[in-house]
């Protein structure tokens, strides 16, 4: 009897010990799993924070060097990504916003293009006509959209007379494009939007003498 009682007590005493050991192992495994989960979440949140602080944005840059007055074509620009956190005031984000415009300054290849660097092409005013005139003076500084005076070195009938016996044909000539050079000509051929009567005078004047454009 003593032996049976002793064995029964031994079995009852052993069960709780085994249960406690199993529970400890389960809790230890859960703890490790929780630590791994928290570590993974911290890494994920950290990567998201880094990613958000380094978000990129599209900007338009010059694909090649553009000279002042050049008309910007699709092949002249490309998209580049820059950090969102950097200040980029006025920088163009879509190529369509500058294609067809005229460069206001020299733009180097790879340079960011801001809206102020380009100008819209000029529109012919109502009642004006466009004629191409050969200029004697340097016209490289004239840009499409500029308004200039056309002056003849010879006197012209029914016109306002300027200094040095010159003749002011008109003071409202609108430059419509860049000069086209032919051979060694200094001024080149430039398209202007003029009132019809001024266009007739200018065409006649360039047949008789030198024609110059004077910036306002």
Main sheet: strands, sense, barrel: 6 strands, antiparallel
User: What gross morphology would you assign?
Assistant: rod-shaped
Low-pLDDT segments: 4-15
Could you estimate the helical fraction of the residues in percent? 25-40%
The counted number of beta strands is 10
Task: Spell the H/E element sequence.
Answer: HEEEEEEEEEHE
User: Structural class per helix/strand content?
Assistant: alpha+beta
Which percent range describes the beta-strand content? 25-35%
Please compute the radius of gyration using only Cα atoms.
40 Å
Distance between the termini: 127 Å
Average pLDDT, to the nearest integer?
80
Number of helices: 2
Task: Give keywords.
216 residues; alpha+beta; Type Iii Antifreeze Protein Isoform Hplc 12; six-stranded antiparallel sheet; two-stranded antiparallel sheet
Walk me through what this model shows.
This protein has helices at about 1-55, 195-210; strands spanning about 55-60, 75-85, 100-105, 120, 130-135, 145-150, 160, 165-175, 190-195, 210-215. A hairpin with a 5-residue loop joins strand 7 and strand 8 (about 165-175). Among the domains are: about 55-120, Type Iii Antifreeze Protein Isoform Hplc 12; about 130-215, no CATH class. The chain has two helices and ten strands, in the order αβββββββββαβ. It has about 220 residues and is α+β, with helices and mostly antiparallel strands. Residues about 5-15 have low confidence and may be disordered.
């Amino acid at each position: 009897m003593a032996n049976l009682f002793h064995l029964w007590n031994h079995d009852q005493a052993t069960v709780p010990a085994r249960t406690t050991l199993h529970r400890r192992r389960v809790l230890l495994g859960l703890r490790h799993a929780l630590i791994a989960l928290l570590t993974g979440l911290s890494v994920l949140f950290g990567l998201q924070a880094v990613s958000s602080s380094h978000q990129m944005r599209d900007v338009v840059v010059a694909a090649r060097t553009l000279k002042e007055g050049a008309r910007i074509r699709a092949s002249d620009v490309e998209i580049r990504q820059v950090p969102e956190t950097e200040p980029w005031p006025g920088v163009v984000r879509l190529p369509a916003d500058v294609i067809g415009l005229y460069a206001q300054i020299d733009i180097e290849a790879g340079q960011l293009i801001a809206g102020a660097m380009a100008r819209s092409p000029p529109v012919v005013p109502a009642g004006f006509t466009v004629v191409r005139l050969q200029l004697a003076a340097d016209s490289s500084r004239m840009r499409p959209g500029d308004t200039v005076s056309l002056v003849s070195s010879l006197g012209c009938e029914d016109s306002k007379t300027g200094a040095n016996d010159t003749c002011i044909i008109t003071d409202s000539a609108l430059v419509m494009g860049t000069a086209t050079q032919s051979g060694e000509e200094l001024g080149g051929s430039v398209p202007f939007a003029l009132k019809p009567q001024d266009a007739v005078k200018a065409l006649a004047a360039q047949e008789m003498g030198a024609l110059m454009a004077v910036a306002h």
